[in-house]
Amino acid sequence: MNQSILKIALKSIRHYRKQVLYQFLIVLLLCAVITGSLMTGKSVRTSLKRTALEKIGNTGIFISSGLRYFDKNLVLKIQNQTGLETTGFLELKGSSQGLMSQRSVNNASIYVVDNNFFGFHNIDSLVINPGEVFVNRKLASALGIKEGDDIIIRFTNISDIPADAPFAPSKEKSSSIVLKAGRITDTEAMGNFSLSISQVPSANIFMNLTDLENLHDRKYKMNRLLIAEGNISVDEVNSALEKAIEPSDIGLRLRHVKSTGESEIISDRVFIDQILLDRIKDKIPSASPVITYLANRIENENSVNPYSFVSGLTSHINTESPSGKTIFINKWLSDDIGAAEGDSITMTWYSPDSLNNLIEKNGKFKVAKVTGTTGIWADSMLMPDFP
Predict the structure, then answer these.
(1) Can you list the positions of beta strands (E) in the chain?
(2) Of 185, 209, 244, at which residue does a domain stop?
(3) What is the pTM of this model?
């Protein structure tokens, strides 16, 4: 019975040999395509993994403060909280030019690091000497430079004050520094380090933090923090960050106001963000926000006082604070523009629009009181540290 079936099958195959051959070839081709796809996919995954590891090195989790900056001491605090190796650096965007070749790269990634950056990535032998920079192979090729050549590095000046804040420093102001290319780094020496998701290697410059600080004669903060790979989750890192961070780490300072006997929190960014105000109010319910702003001019009939500071106070601070369209002025301003209680004065100021252009606005206010120049009415510390 089985032999009969086998004979029938063989006869059928011989009779339909062309169709059978075509089906065999189709199946063979499909197997080859599927096998090739699997092998290619594995190769691509391996390649992507290798590229990612070349970019992030020993990084397991990183914390970015965006355009804000945090104190360098926070790096050690997080390390103590997590028990894992940490490092921090300042990431900037800028341009560079070979001093001799005169060739330029306009979109360079500048990593301003301290001495433990390469040690964090298990390359203890690499240390950037003052006056030198490390550049990766891509940047060196684009600039046409070799080790020992000088390069010009340009970047926008760093400021705690956000660019969209009123009276922020001009975005056009930049700094430049000439440093020697001490080493051209390849992938094994973190030459292609990057925290971006792009698969295209960036043109990298690694600068010693002391060179930047000596350039501007000031201490600099950081905006990126790396935590080494380890058995820790993002939630645990967030918890460690909440325990470690202090107001000073994010540019907040507490100071005593002698003229009023109060304490106040001020920010290196001049203006305190609403999210921080809400957190402060949660912790200190009795706290009240105060804003001091620059008035272009204050007018009373034909008398004008230019460039006065105007503070917005709340009733929590002083029960006599004006309300509505009323204003308190001190005796000095009253004498200067000849304004008395009950008079109507016009105040003009700059207000930023949605594109951060300063538009001049004005409003009329009734003088509710002429104050003295003592106590809260003589608090010079109300004036922010505008640049």
Answers:
(1) 59-64, 86-98, 104-113, 132-136, 150-156, 174-185, 204-208, 224-228, 252-257, 262-267, 291-300, 303-312, 326-330, 344-352, 358-371
(2) 244
(3) 0.76
HSE-up (13 A, CA, CB side) for residue 301: 7
Within 10 A of 144 (CB to CB), how many other CB atoms are there? 12
Q: In what order do the strands lie in the sheet with 358-371?
A: 303-312, 291-300, 344-352, 358-371, 326-330
Tell me how far the alpha carbon of residue 112 is from its chain's centroid.
13
97 and 234 inside one domain: yes
Rounded to 10 deg, the angle between the 2-15 and 17-56 helix axes is 80
213 and 297 together in one domain: no
Residues 346, 299 contacting (CB under 8 angstroms): yes
Give the residue among 212, 185, 200 at the shortest CA–CA distance from 113.
212
329-348 residue pLDDT tens: 999 999 999 999 999 999 99
Sort strands 132-136 and 174-185 into parallel, antiparallel or unpaired: parallel
The encoded tokens of residue 216 equal 């501007």
> Which letter does DSSP use for residue 260 in this model?
T
Bridge partners, 306 (sequence order): 297
Per the CB < 8 A criterion, the answer to whether 309 and 295 are in contact is yes
Report the number of distinct structural domains present in the chain. 2
Q: How far is the C-alpha of 237 from the C-alpha of 227, rounded, in Å?
A: 9
Main-chain dihedrals φ then ψ at residue 300, nearest 5 degrees? -135, 105
Q: In the numeric block, which tokens belong to residue 202? A: 């960036």
Instruction: Please report whether residue 311 resides in a domain.
Output: yes
Q: Which residues does 50 contact at the CB level (< 8 Å), separation at least 6?
A: none
The tens digit of pLDDT for each residue in 92-145 reads: 999 999 999 999 999 999 999 998 899 999 998 889 999 999 999 999 999 999
Q: Within a domain: residue 74?
A: yes
Domain boundary among 244, 273, 293: 244
Inform me whether the pLDDT recorded for 2 exceeds 60. no
Work out whether strand 104-113 and strand 204-208 pair parallel, antiparallel, or are unpaired. Answer: parallel
Pairing of strands 59-64, 224-228: antiparallel
Q: Do 211 and 179 touch, CB atoms closer than 8 A?
A: yes
* Rounded distance between C-alpha atoms, residue 69 and residue 320, angstroms: 38
Same domain, 157 and 208: yes
